[in-house]
Write a structure and sequence with these properties.
- The structure is a homodimer of 229-residue chains.
- Chain A has two domains: 63 residues, Arc Repressor Mutant, subunit A, CATH 1.10.10; 137 residues, Up-down Bundle (Four Helix Bundle (Hemerythrin (Met), subunit A)), CATH 1.20.120.
- Helices cover 70% and strands 4% of the residues of chain A.
- Chain A contains nine helices and three strands.
- The first copy, chain A, has a three-stranded antiparallel β-sheet with strand order 1-3-2.
- In chain A, α1 packs across α3, α5 packs antiparallel against α6 and α6 packs parallel to α8.
- The N terminus and C terminus of chain A are likely disordered.
- Chains A and B meet through α3, α4 and α7 of A and α3, α4 and α7 of B.
- The first copy, chain A, binds a DNA duplex (30 and 30 nucleotides) through α3.
DNA sequence: CTTTAGGAGACTGTATACAAGAACCGAGAT
DNA sequence: ATCTCGGTTCTTGTATACAGTCTCCTAAAG
């Protein structure tokens, strides 16, 4: 592996391996459909097959990997159609998260969210693109934590990573816009306006979808504004 | 194990083990907070630790198991609050599934859904309670398949199993009512009425929540009709 | 030239072994 | 009696080994 043993408090290898393979998939270093041969992956990461296997199961549950019994695991394929489908799910989930966050917000909530947004803005200005993506994800997760629904958060983490994957695969990054949308969402949550918070979260994802569609089929008109509402 | 090697086309042990442990958790044979010692589980199921470990990771990703590195795995705890939170997620997800199903339905859709409902009705009449639960889950999954959103389905399967868990833990089964609600949802989908389909799915989950609340806090008034809409 | 049987190689499935760390229990000190 | 220290035991983390299955290549038959 390039650098697995980072961070003092060493997590179990399986967790590091899971994170690393996931990163390789999201970044595209492991291409769609590419076979994940346990031996080779293990050698590449400098571990035995066992942690790799456990990681593959988790990544399969998250939808990054497809496993066919006795055949092997491959990086999942992400057709444009499947990629677009994700936005519908995100609207539902993130809309709910925003609504609940507005409902459950405390006086400290706004500061907490703005802290993440601040870091994100810095990262945008510094042009650290990967960090921007991570901080945007962190923002959404922070909203989820404010919402305080444990199962919602359990789903959100892999979903957001998948969203990163979708964007990386289509080369449709969009740093600056999302920041103002996040800020807008943050305000609605801070104000405790559930309807507005949900609406802004949904609008945010809808905007992301437009950006995605523009990258995937630049010519075609974007007539798909229907969906959740 | 009691009976793991069932079904001719033998799945990998890890899959059978995952299903079995999940079943043990949902049924309550493994209690909340109970330690999942790999050795013991492996011995109990008649396999080695390896499949058990892989299963535990998957079940952790699904939220059935809590893993603390170097300490061990336990059956997750499901506080009443956490249990209730699930209904919000279900409303969002199943509402979306119903909407998409109505949008994507084909002429064969109704028959397919009604087939499952028929089996469920039979099971209700025969008093086969566990089978009823499985068929209700199958119905929801079938709606998801009609919706044709792969990631949505990926989330739905564990979510529905978790819903089963919630009900089993609170002893709040409700066979007959859900059946008519399912039929009603089926009709809306068949008619292609997206709004109505979503509304009925949400209402169905809301009814399930009422049933849950009635079981959990029988005295307290149920004032929580707010949420997605 | 296409097709098909056979066998070698590659890879997954499962078990076992060993190392490292955490929990537990008892003995001695305070 | 309580606290603390030490060691024993239990359990997880990781690696290795072996068996079973699939794939792919080769070679012979049609």
């Amino acid at each position: 592996m390039t650098e697995l043993t980072l961070g003092g408090a060493h997590l179990p290898l399986r967790d590091q391996v899971t994170a690393e393979i996931r990163r390789l998939i999201i970044s595209g270093e492991l291409a769609q459909g590419e076979r994940l041969v346990e031996d080779r992956l293990a050698a590449r990461l400098g571990v035995s097959r066992n942690p790799v296997r456990e990681s593959i199961r988790v990544l399969a549950a998250e939808g990054f990997v497809q496993v066919i019994p006795r055949i092997g695991a491959t990086v999942a394929r992400l057709s444009p159609a499947e990629a677009e489908e994700l936005f519908d799910v995100r609207m539902a989930i993130e809309g709910l998260a925003a609504r609940l966050a507005a409902r459950k917000r405390t006086p400290e909530t706004a500061a907490r969210l703005r802290l993440v947004l601040g870091s994100a803005k810095e990262a945008v200005e510094e042009g650290r693109l990967e960090r921007v993506a991570d901080l945007n994800t962190a923002f959404h997760l922070a909203v989820g934590e404010v919402a305080g629904n444990s199962y919602l958060n359990l789903m959100m983490a892999p979903m957001l990573l998948r969203a990163q994957w979708v964007f990386r695969q289509t080369a449709a990054a969009r740093g600056p816009h999302s920041w103002s949308e996040h800020l807008s969402l943050c305000e609605a949550i801070a104000a405790g306006d559930e309807d507005e918070a949900q609406a802004r979260a949904v609008a945010h994802v809808a905007a992301a979808r437009r950006s995605f569609l523009a990258a995937v089929r630049p010519a075609k008109a974007q007539h798909d504004e229907k969906t959740v509402g």
